[in-house]
Amino acid sequence: MESVVLARVVRGDTVESVHRGHLFIEDCSGKTIYRLGNPEAIAFVRSASKPLQAIPFLTSGAADAFGYSDEEIATACASHSGEKIHVRVVAQMLEKAGLSEAYLRCGVHLPFNDKEAERMIREGEPATQLHNNCSGKHAAMLALAKHVGSDLAAYEQPEHPVQQAIFGVISQFSEIAAGDIAIGIDGCAAPNFAMPVSAMARSFANLIAPPESFDEVTRGACDRIVSSMVRFPELIGG
Question: Which among 55, 124, 214, 224 could disulfide-bond with 218, CB atoms 3.0 to 4.6 Å apart, if both were Cys?
């Protein structure tokens, strides 16, 4: 099945652009609720995978070992807008692990928040890696790397133990064999994952309602991640 039109942008009386894609909704029992296009179409999960990428950060004991709060766990799952609150929380995450911005490998860009970006430009304040929308995710990866005693300088490399642990979670939650998941490098330099749209839906269903086949530690990590994200939406985005 080909992609279908999901949205049209209309300016005046003229269709300016048409956006095609695939849509698939599955409930936590595995029942298909709604579908458009091809549910087996393969795409990258991109930043939507961040809550899953944070699972090993909790299950390893790293989050508790460094005393991370629920606010910091939410920020580990964020595509934040680089406001002062986000910069402060990510800096706290690094400090608790005995690290600094210099260890981050996510790169520098201005905040996504227009007002904050304009303020920084106006005042001549340079952007740092803390402003990167993925800095919370990277801070959590660094904390995990330090907790398990692996190389801090290469934590974003696909073969690194941190990324291998994340890859295992992606396979577990999507219910797809690791060998059938394609890997690509995301804009923040960390690996990302391509899979069918239906498997993405299954991943999030398993995150929200982890099955009994998942061990108790993993189910607890799911509950804490979902709760943190719901309680602190301003840290997830802006």
Answer: 214
The pTM assigned to this predicted structure is 0.94
Spatial CB neighbours of 10, under 8 Å, sequence gap ≥ 6: 16
* Closest of 4, 33, 38, 40 to residue 174, by C-alpha: 40
Q: Is 176 left (phi over 0), alpha (psi -120 to 50) or beta?
A: beta
C-alpha span between 39 and 128 (Å, rounded)? 39
CA distances, 32 to each of 167, 199, 202 (Å): 26, 12, 10
Confidence (pLDDT) at 1: 72
User: What is the CB-side half-sphere exposure of residue 140 using CA atoms within 13 A?
Assistant: 34
Read off the pLDDT of residues 178-217 as tens digits, 9 standing for 90 and up. Answer: 999 999 999 999 999 999 999 999 999 999 999 999 999 9
Torsion angle in degrees (nearest 10) through CA of 52, 6, 24, 40: -90
What is the C-alpha to C-alpha distance for residues 173 and 214, in angstroms, rounded to an integer? 9
Do residues 19 and 186 touch, judged by C-beta distance below 8 A?
no
Tokens 């599955």 belong to which residue? Answer: 26
In tens, the pLDDT along 108-120 reads 999 999 999 999 9
